[in-house]
Design a protein that fits this description.
Radius of gyration: 22 Å
Largest sheet: 9 strands, antiparallel
Number of helices: 5
Number of domains: 1
Strand content: 35-45%
Order of helices and strands: HHHEEHHEEEEEEE
Shape: flat
Helix content: 10-25%
């Protein structure tokens, strides 16, 4: 008797599971597939490395260096964070897109980190220029970031991250990072 109950339960559970749409089917992108596009760029750069000339400004101090073995996933982490195809963002943005540009702006009644995602497209509908604004605030800190990325022929050429972070009871920190991919 117990075996038949278990068999019935397993059969019933598997039927319910089979009727449920898969995650891929139900999670259709609502917004521009930014994470997918950028991940393809990261994979390409990992397979065909390019050197980068980086300039870093931190509270007025400047450092320049050439990096030959870049961890592209880490370098693009903030840009990947700006992907809007997440359940929490599904209804949080106004779509202000027009011909040759994709533009999402956070609705005034929403409280999400990404405030703006603007993508200017080239003639082949690939990103030519990307602008992202991110603001985060909690009890301990407040952060503002502006991210920019420029493409040529669908490939990243330059990128920058500019921002400030204010820790509670401390002076704000201002930073800027600029990267230029060098020709091979």
């Amino acid at each position: 008797m117990l075996i038949s109950r278990i068999s019935f339960f397993l059969l019933f559970t598997s039927l319910l599971w089979a009727c449920k749409p898969s995650v891929e089917e139900s999670a259709k992108p609502v917004f521009y597939p930014w994470e997918k596009y950028l991940t393809a760029q990261i994979d390409s750069l990992s397979r065909h490395p390019q050197s980068v000339h980086k300039t870093i400004l931190l509270d007025g101090r400047k450092e320049e260096k050439q990096v030959n073995n870049m961890d592209w996933k880490q370098e693009r982490a903030m840009f990947l964070h700006a992907d809007l195809n997440k359940p929490a963002a599904a209804s949080g943005y106004d779509n202000l897109s027009e011909d040759s540009c994709v533009w999402y702006s956070l609705k005034s009644n929403e409280n999400l980190a990404v405030k703006k995602l603007y993508i200017q497209l080239d003639a082949l509908d690939r990103p030519a220029k990307v602008e992202i604004e991110i603001d985060e605030k909690n009890f301990l800190f407040e952060t503002h970031k502006k991210l920019h990325m420029n493409f040529t022929d669908g490939r990243v050429q330059t990128y920058s991250i500019e921002g400030s972070q204010q820790m509670r009871w401390m002076s704000p920190t201002h930073y800027q990072l600029m990267g230029v991919l060098l020709p091979k």
